[in-house]
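Can't paste images in this forum, so I'm doing it all in text. The chain is below; anyone willing to post the predicted structure tokens underneath?
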Amino acid sequence: MTAQRFPHLVGQPFARRILGSALDSGRGASAYLFEGPPGCGKKTAALDLAAALVGAESPEGEEGAWSRASRRMHPDIRLFAPEGASFKVQQVEHLLAEASLRPFEGTRKVFILDRAEDLTAGAANRLLKPIEEPPDGMTWILVTTQRSVVPATIASRCQSLRFYPLDEASLRTVLERELSVDARRARDLAALSGGSVRLAAWYQGAEGRAQVQEAENFLEAAASGSLARLLDWVEAAQHERRGLDRLLGVVWVLLRERWITAAELPAHLRLMHGAPAHGGGLSKEALAALMQALVRCQMALGRNANNALALTAFALAGAGSRP
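Text version of the structure:
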């Protein structure tokens, strides 16, 4: 019964068990906070839960309720995102006015707020009482990738439910189904994305492929032993800004793949189907040094270090590293 109630959610056995038990017992929370990394299925779970709560009273059933809700066409399942950079008081006032109305098709309404971390202080304060004391038949689902940023006053009034990055098998299932990629490509995308469907889809696109190529460029420069080429890479990479964390994550995956091969470790430890295009000339010692330097670089950037200096220190760990 639980699996049927969450037909679109892949993986997430813990969330399935908790939500399924609530549905089976009829004692679900009036407000939930779904937290977890991007692309792990939080919003899909919210829509599945909403369809289960509302669809039982709908002539079209849960699947029809989900279909309309996902297209933002169901009057009793409303999906909200911030209008602009954040949820402001005016937007919250408008959605509260909708929440005060009786359900259109049954006896229950479900309001889903995506990016709950973007609630302003004023908007969060306005939501406190409606979330703590919702009208009969009202369920709130707040979705966030940054649980620590959601105001504590809001989080404490919700039942928190943690979602986790998808395991490789689950993510590959989604990618093969949603992106129509073959099993080999799905394996590579799963490795690059760290369990995020959204990020995997991005890596399948032109911008994502370009970022993977930039990571390959680093391996090529490091293997060449050319200081000039390494510094050229730093010059290009330091301007990535918001995409820098992603780029360094890809560099880490490629370095790890090369290190496993260089260390002659079993092939099943590799994450990707195909080997990186570059870096074959790097020794296992050089690769290990680069991986350690990359961790230090990421820690420095996390402390708001200068991009150019942190990247240069990392890149120079590969200077003269050819065997």
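DSSP finds 15 helices and five strands in the chain. The mean pLDDT is 86.
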